[in-house]
Amino acid sequence: MTLPVRRPGRARALLDTEARASAHPADPSWTVRLAADLRELDADWRESSEICANAAWAARSAGHSVLGLLSPEQVTAAESDPVTTRTYRHLYLSALRFDFRCPTLQAFIEQLPGTSLRSLDCYSRALYAFALLGQSRPEGLALMDEVLAEAGEHTKTLHVLLHGLWLGQDLDHCAERLLALSARPGFDADRDPILLFRVAGALRRLGRYDEGLAAIDRALDLLPPGDITVHGDLVRERSLIAAARDLPHPSRQGETAT
Fold this sequence. Notes:
Blueprint: H1 8-23, H2 30-41, H3 45-61, H4 72-76, H5 82-98, H6 102-110, H7 114-118, H8 122-134, H9 139-151, H10 155-167, H11 174-182, H12 193-205, H13 209-222, H14 231-246, H15 250-257
Helix pairs in contact: 1-2, 1-3, 2-5, 3-5, 5-8, 6-8, 8-9, 8-10, 10-11, 10-12, 11-12, 12-13, 12-14, 13-14
């Protein structure tokens, strides 16, 4: 799928919109202003998902989760325009994802009216797939394939699915699926530390420890200076890989005994 080309002026407007949304996370009215800005821009689902996911993450990092600003009733309330409805849904579902609340996210989606569920945008369906994958539910794999067919190279959507596979450790061939997804166009392994973090975990589960260490070391090197939001997760993954590599394996024990 070919992604829409953004005009320079529109790209600037979208960046300004995201900056305003993230500037004052303690102000409970920023979600309303963001919805108004996206409505004025007539943002599509791709633009909305990128801005809303980033804004939800920034708010959470500042200690002001969207889950404390929007109620489920607000998110499901019928709005006069679809852009506002989608904005609140993207913000709320992204916040549930960042808190790993997979059962809650699944239940929230499934209680939407039938027409809303069938008309969900691609990113919202990706978040639904994340909730299923994160609980190792096989039906999430079929939904993931449907989303991939529509998402094309949209990186934010691909990351949601990658996150679900990373959590769904009891799915058949989950690590192999994660590695296959990580190789899709839309990802940039040379500059994406979160991608490399997920890949390192999959390599550890496959027993490819040296490759996993190389991936996690590259991820650590790519983090912005002073970043504390995910640094601890990366360091823990590195410790897990190193510990797994150094554990005695049955084949090595046999060699020692002889």
